[in-house]
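Exercise 7.
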Amino acid sequence: MTPLPSQPQHLILLFLSFSFLPFFSLSAIDTFVFGGCTQLRYSPNSAYETNLNSLLTSLVNSATYSSYNNYTIQGSSPQDALFGLYQCRGDLSMPDCATCIARAVTQLGGLCSDTCGGALQLEGCYVKYDNSSFLGVEDKTVVLKKCGPSVGYEEEAMGRRDAVLGALVGASGGYRVGGAGKVQGVAQCVGDLSGSECQDCVGEAIGRLKSDCGTADFGDMFLGKCYARYNTHGPPVFSKAHHGKPFLTTTTTTTAISLINLMVMVRRHLRLSLGY
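Solution. The predicted structure, written as tokens, is:
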């Protein structure tokens, strides 16, 4: 693995093809929100690449029966170790979760080709991998902030918004939803956080939403390990966590593995065309 000279080894956010929706829609679970890659790269056909392909395949397979999971691959040397996780939005069904993760992994492969770390947030799911362990580590760094247009201080709307956000802070669990009239709110922590860490992260995200977005019509605050969102004039699109039975089909699994294989082929094609 060879780092680029004079470049920080952290995720560089890329907002290419950015598309923002002020509230969730199940028909748009694969809409791109943000993505980032580390500057550190691995060598083609290396042990790290083999481990990465194995990790991504495991993430895609696991998403057919679980909405969250994390994996650690210990390589033959410390530089080949790999850590990764995925998480789906708490209200997604297992088929939607599996579809979202498969698409996220495919997009991440194109976005972060040959890099040792990457993260991608879609509307319905999140995927991250790195050669440095981040599992179980609280991270309240602001990754993305988005505030809608100010509507001025509408006492009723702002009062309901503050009440909804307050209820999210006072709730428990990794996925939290709330609403009052047209005001809707949602918050979610990455599954590797403890209950107290999740509470701390959500509180930070909501505090920043209120201070940074002011009287905005809607707001998004994505931190490193959690997010909070609200919309004051949207339909009640947030729903409670999905508790359906795990769903697994041969078609879903086969499609997921095909996507991984396609991603590997694309990376190899890019190397040949670039002459390395």
